[in-house]
Write a structure and sequence with these properties.
With 255 residues, this protein is of the alpha/beta class. The chain has a single domain, classed as Stationary-phase Survival Protein Sure Homolog, Chain: A (3-Layer(aba) Sandwich). Strands 3-4-2-1-5-6-7-13-8 form a nine-stranded mixed β-sheet, sandwiched between helices. The protein is globular. The model has no long low-confidence stretch (mean pLDDT 95).
């Protein structure tokens, strides 16, 4: 019997990055279910839609079964596991995110990480995956996320294949606590790019807003490292390698 993977993301169900991951998971032998936001829900962290109804619509032609959900990534996974899926999946895989999810501040804000976190909260192995992009490529993909630029396709394919195989290796393995695997792929990732275990970089961003006509508008900055670390996820990415960070939320606060 085929193992089942539940896919989600925070960039929306129509993105080329999610569709490429669906294809890679199918090639890896998964039965693929998808529950993803109807549109972009980035930078929303582990938010739930507490004060409004969340609508769900079938999304034909993607994977074995797919739903477009007008909610957050956490909404999507929670509703799928609690109401839409007939059986519990073997693994939850979130991504591939458009851009990296490295450094501790960014991961705490990430909808991609939150989707995977909701999976592990149900006792299911969970993986979040993200692809670093050069700024010009990021801007193009972000504007037209349903399309993948030709020069990026082999790197996206390599990231998706690696993520699908990584998720497949977790099937049937003991799962304890609240663990989330976070994979960050460098922009030029290939089938032979090595993977390194890493810890989240500690970065201080300061203000992420700039004055605008009506108030303040979000404005990204790279921030400054609090404690430079060659084993951080950001340092691994900068070396052109795949960063693998294990977030064990069940160990937070334990000595």
């Amino acid at each position: 019997m085929k193992p089942t993977v539940l896919l989600t993301n925070d960039d929306g169900i129509g993105t080329a990055f999610l569709h490429a991951l669906v294809a890679a998971c199918q090639a890896e032998g998964f039965q693929v279910k998808i529950a993803a936001p109807s549109g972009e829900r980035s930078w929303i962290g582990r938010a739930f839609s507490r004060h409004r109804e969340v609508t769900v619509a079938a999304y034909p032609g993607l994977g074995d079964e797919a739903w477009s959900i007008d909610g957050t990534p956490s909404d999507c996974v929670n509703i799928a596991l609690g109401h839409l899926l007939k059986q519990k999946p073997d693994v939850v895989l979130s991504g591939v995110n458009i851009g990296f999810n490295a450094t501790m501040p960014l991961c705490l804000s990430s909808g991609t990480l939150a989707g995977a976190t909701e999976g592990t909260a149900w006792g299911i192995p969970a993986v979040a995956c993200s692809l670093d992009l050069e700024q010009s490529i990021f801007e193009r993909v972000h504007r037209t996320s349903a399309e993948c630029p030709p020069e990026l396709r082999p790197h996206l394919a390599a990231a998706c294949q690696h993520a699908a195989r990584f998720a497949k290796a977790l099937v049937g393995q003991p799962h304890r606590g609240l663990e989330v695997h976070s994979l960050n792929y460098p922009a030029g990732v290939t089938d032979t790019t090595p993977m390194e275990r890493a810890s989240p970089a500690l970065v201080r961003h300061g203000s992420l807003f700039q004055p605008s006509a009506l108030g303040y508008r979000f404005a990204w900055n790279d921030g400054e490292a609090i404690e430079p670390d060659q084993n951080s996820d950001l340092a691994v990415l900068e070396r052109g390698r795949i960063s693998h960070t294990l977030y064990d939320f069940s160990q937070v606060g334990r000595s």
